[in-house]
Amino acid sequence: MSRRTSAFEFAGPRAYAVGVRRSLVLVVTVLAAVVASLAPAVAGAAPASQAKGATVTGPVTGGTGEPTLIATGFDLADAGYVAEEYFIEGTATAYDAAKPLKSDGKWAVKPVSTAPYKTRIVVYRPEKAKDFSGTVVVEWLNVSAGFDSAAHWMHVHNAFVRSGAAWVGVSAQAVGVQGGAEAVGGVAAGGVKAADPERYGSLTHPGDIYSYDIFSQVGRALRAGGKTGPLAGFPVERVIGAGQSQGAIYLTTYVNAIQPRDKVFDGFLLHSRFAGAANLTKAPPAPAGTPFRSLMPSPSRIRTDTGVPVLTFETEFEVASAASGAFVDARQPDTKMLRLWEVAGTSHFDTYGAPGFGYHDLGDGQAERDLLDPAKLSGGPLNCAPAINSGGAYLVLNAAFSQLERWIRDGTPPPKAPRLDVTAAPKGASSEPASAAEEAPTVHRDEHGIALGGIRTPLVEAPIATLSSEGATGGTFCRVFGTTVPFDAATLSSLYPTHADYVAKFNQATDRAV
User: Fold this and answer.
1) Beta strand residue intervals within 357-431, DSSP E
2) Which of 9, 155, 282, 506 is deepest in the core (most CB within 10 A)?
3) 248-284, pLDDT tens digit by residue?
4) How far apart are the first and last CA of the chain?
5) Which helix (H) or strand (E) holds 449?
6) At what angle do helices 211-224 and 246-253 cross, to 10 degrees?
7) Is the peptide bond before 415 cis (omega within 30 degrees of 0)?
8) How far apart are CA 502 and CA 15, in angstroms?
């Protein structure tokens, strides 16, 4: 380069546009601290539909006039979609192990109790039935921050819309309905009932041990169709279960223990799970000094006889996170019905979800340009330091959904992917998950600090910054956001002597990734 230039000037909107047209072929997490806007505001109900004991009513009206949910902010009409909300109620069953549970995931369970419930589902679907693909993605809404977040809709909405899939978010856990002890950004987590008591005052959740059967009942209700209900007039051909982070941990248990009994779903997308699985029954209190106690084996792998496709999608963070039970310990070979994708340079949460690159993203390329603009880097809503990860995990996650849907539709499995170059930490005598102070797995990195191995996007193959899952500091949750550290001008100049060099390397990297 003949002059000093910033990384963004060097990459340039034009240069990135050339690459992004191709990289989009690769095609949440949401953590919004600004939940104070969820102000309190009786819900109307259409005739009920029945699905094996569950009663579905709606579309729901009243209260503030719209569903309480952390999701995208664009007008769904701009994508040809509509939003509706329904209540579902019935009697849910809790299960316990019928015999000792092993790490192979082949878990047999037995019913132990029942309880009444009433929860809600949010439906985003094409406005016109002719635009519906027949695929319904049923997301186990994430409650890790103490309120319902639509992580998969946030990250994968463009692929859903392009394909014509319907998306349904399920308040499967008690925290989403009734709140919990967490507080994010100084705002207590009160669930949807506290956010809009007029709309949601009639909801009740008996506890997370019943969440698995609630999820099954939602899936059956959607598959049943009928003249009334969430997808009346929209012929459902495929129902996919999806979840991120805590949602994926619960779905790990669901896939291993409940799907073999209920056979409701045609496939699963598990996004950012850790090594363990969620409890079937309520765990005893954790001993002092441990983050939690699980009754499930650790690691918990996915059973190899699922009978339906399962794609596990991992960022660099989950693979090597000691404090949450590193996923590296739960790795297993790909099989006829299992695929594992691990993505270099990515983290559990990132700029697409947290500061909102994806909040208004309708696929026009602006979000992709933002990923390469140092001026857009920030510490996110929690002011983490340094700037949080901009590794673009959502681009590969879009591809994961598209590949999974094709796998279910015509039997073509996704490509097998290389694993990240990670060495597991030495194992101690304790079976409890590691604390943050214990030794973490080692991520092997190149001279720029970027992880080796895994699925590699143009952002790490033609880098203008160090993208990592490590090094974040700050308040609650900051450690899961990862980091982005832009290269200095000298490094950029040595890597890409000319503008054309950068474009060429970006395009070559894109072709390899595709």
Assistant:
1) 422-423
2) 155
3) 999 999 999 999 999 999 999 999 999 999 999 887 6
4) 30
5) none
6) 80
7) no
8) 8
